[in-house]
Specification:
- By secondary structure, the chain is of the alpha/beta class.
- It has three domains: about 80 residues, Gyrase A, domain 2 (2-Layer Sandwich), CATH 3.30.1360.70; about 260 residues, HUPs (Rossmann fold, 3-Layer(aba) Sandwich); about 180 residues, Isoleucyl-tRNA Synthetase, Domain 1, CATH 1.10.730.
- About 55% of the residues lie in helices and about 10% in strands.
- Strands 6-5-4-10-11 form a five-stranded parallel sheet, with helices on both faces.
- Helix 6 crosses helix 8, helix 17 packs antiparallel against helix 18 and helix 18 packs antiparallel against helix 19.
- The protein is flat and about 80 Å long.
């Protein structure tokens, strides 16, 4: 839609200078294809915005690309000539292919996205899946929008919770090797600790003593820690691979906390931090309407925030980045307010470059997950379940598929369904996850979008070749015009998603495009039409297929030529 925006800017600038960033997309097509709010112009010109809208509408008459200009209150609505749209948009898709939708809004900007950040005392669960998918898809979208994007993981590999798993293994593990997936094996001991601690509260003190030994460098404790952590890393890597998650760099708290503690002591001596009566070091935040934050406990062991403070400095020194995005659940909103305020207290100049990409919790029919009670929904179990549901559905739908083909499709459809369901929701809000609903071929689901892609592939394959040009003037049906308009909207959807940290914008767009294609498919023949119209429609739907591929790729979802 860039050419139309440029034309609108040209028309309006005869009377008032504007930029294309001032243009909005109306919520209803009846209000036009673009709208210009006149409030900002009114403030500068010291005029009523309604008068300015009328002046612009009188001046900006019809042109080669603009069909109508209409003043509606303080807005100017612009209606484009949609027959021109296909001539501008479709050749661009044909030319750019996998690059269609890319932009340079992030040119020369570097963004580091930290996500996942699991603890090494248990396997990843359903909440981690939402975190991983949000972090990965947002990173993909930033990269597609021209940003230099660094995906990082910060693994919490030390602390009291790690010691609880270690202590349980030491007491009841009998030096066994993992007999289940290795991170699940370690997680079972974390559950075992918490169950036993209900009747033996002294276990909590033993775990604290173990943490103190770890920080003091006790050889036996460190050896056990390394062995169990290695089991967990192997399990984590298997989970990441299955989910399609990758990182450019991984940091470990165990390698950072000690230097962080030294800095905390230095800032204490400078009077920035204070001590409690029992000797704990804390950041005084009450003057900023925040609760004080303990940094180092009275026994000398440090909390996670100490490493976060140190790692932020390390990364800004290392990457010279423009923004650091923390993808962390809304339960930690208060924590990040404290963390960023601590950055200000110690004089870090990059606080305004830090952003907490908060997201809502994931719930099941049973309610909130509670890992310490052992009834958490593990990420691996959930992926296995969704693939099994997909496998069963494929066997019912398609008889005669080989086992190899069923497995290939079941994984692509199942994991795609999980990803899409997680990503289509407003990430700021809590959500309910329903595996059976997510795997449906109908409704607002991943398989629905994948099936639109597969259906187009079937039609194009029957036609027998890919076209690079056709008579665009033949695309006159309303269903065709709607598809062209949506194809034109894809770059804007990606940009909006990148600017506002909202991967769900891309997911919702793909649903709209798939729905519009299905409306077209019901209303318009393709292969049964005369040759020229057939070619035009083949080119149109192949452009739809390309955009579906590009969009699904940003979400990390595989496309299938056959479902």
């Amino acid at each position: 839609m860039d050419e139309f925006k440029k034309e609108i800017v040209r028309l309006v600038s005869k009377k008032y200078p504007i930029s294309d960033s001032m243009l909005e997309t109306p919520p209803d097509e009846k209000l036009g294809d673009f709208a210009l709010p006149c409030f900002g112009l009114a403030k500068e010109a010291k005029k009523d915005p309604k008068i300015i809208a009328e002046e612009i509408a009188d001046e900006a008459k019809e042109s080669e690309l603009i069909k109508e200009v209409r003043a509606v209150g303080p807005y100017v609505n612009f209606f484009v000539k949609k027959d021109k749209l296909s001539e501008l948009v479709l050749p661009n898709v044909v030319k750019l292919k996998n690059d269609y939708g890319k932009s340079l809004i992030g040119k020369d900007k570097m963004i580091v996205v930290e996500f996942s950040a699991p603890n090494t005392n248990k396997p990843q669960h359903l909440g981690h899946i939402r975190n991983n998918l949000l972090g990965m898809s947002f990173s993909n979208i930033l990269e597609f929008s021209g940003h230099k994007t660094i995906r990082v993981n910060f693994i919490n590999d030390r602390g009291i919770h790690i010691c609880k798993s270690m202590l349980a293994y030491k007491k009841w593990g009998n030096d066994r090797e993992p007999d289940v997936k290795s991170d699940h094996f370690v997680g079972n001991f974390y559950v075992m600790f918490n169950l036993n601690a209900q009747d033996k509260p002294e276990l909590e003190d033993e775990a604290k003593e173990m943490l103190k030994k770890w920080e003091e460098g006790d050889k036996e404790t460190l050896a056990l820690w390394r062995k169990m952590n290695n089991w967990v890393y192997k399990g984590f890597n298997d989970t990441y691979e299955k989910l399609g998650i990758r990182f450019d760099n991984t940091y470990y708290e165990s390698e950072i906390y000690e230097k962080g503690k030294k800095r905390i002591i230095e800032w204490l001596e400078k009077g920035i931090f204070k001590k409690t009566d029992d000797g704990a070091i804390y950041a005084p935040l009450q003057d900023f309407n925040l609760p004080d934050k303990i940094l180092i406990r009275s026994d000398g062991t440090s909390l996670y925030i100490v490493s976060d403070i140190e790692l932020a400095k390390i990364r800004f020194d290392e990457y010279k980045m423009d923004k650091l995005v923390y993808v962390v659940a809304s339960e930690q909103n208060a924590y990040f307010q404290q963390l960023f305020k601590v950055f200000d207290l110690i004089g870090y100049e990059f606080t305004n470059k830090c952003f907490h990409m908060s997201y809502g919790m994931v719930f099941l029919p049973e309610g909130k997950m509670k890992s310490r009670e052992g009834n958490v929904v593990d990420a691996d179990d959930l992926m296995d379940e969704i693939i099994e549901l997909s496998r069963e559905d494929l066997k019912k739908r398609y008889e005669g598929l080989s086992d190899i083909e069923i497995e290939k499709r079941a994984k692509a459809i199942g994991i795609g369904a999980l990803k899409f369901f997680m990503l289509k929701h407003d990430h700021l809000k809590d959500m309910n996850y329903n595996p059976k609903e997510s795997i449906s071929f109908e409704g607002e689901t991943g398989p629905y979008v994948q099936y639109a892609y597969a259906r187009i592939s079937s039609i194009v394959n029957k036609f027998g070749k890919i076209l690079d040009k056709a008579d665009y003037s033949l695309l006159r049906a309303e269903e065709e015009k709607k598809l062209v308009k949506l194809i034109a909207d894809f770059p804007e959807a990606v940009e909006e998603s990148a600017r506002n940290c909202r991967p769900e914008v891309v997911a919702r767009y793909l649903l709209d495009l798939s729905h519009a294609f299905n409306e077209f498919y019901q209303a318009c023949q393709v292969l049964a039409e005369d040759e020229e119209l057939k070619k035009s429609r083949i080119l149109l739907i192949n452009c739809v297929r390309q955009v579906l591929k590009n969009g699904l790729g940003l979400l990390g979802i595989e496309c299938l030529d056959e479902m």
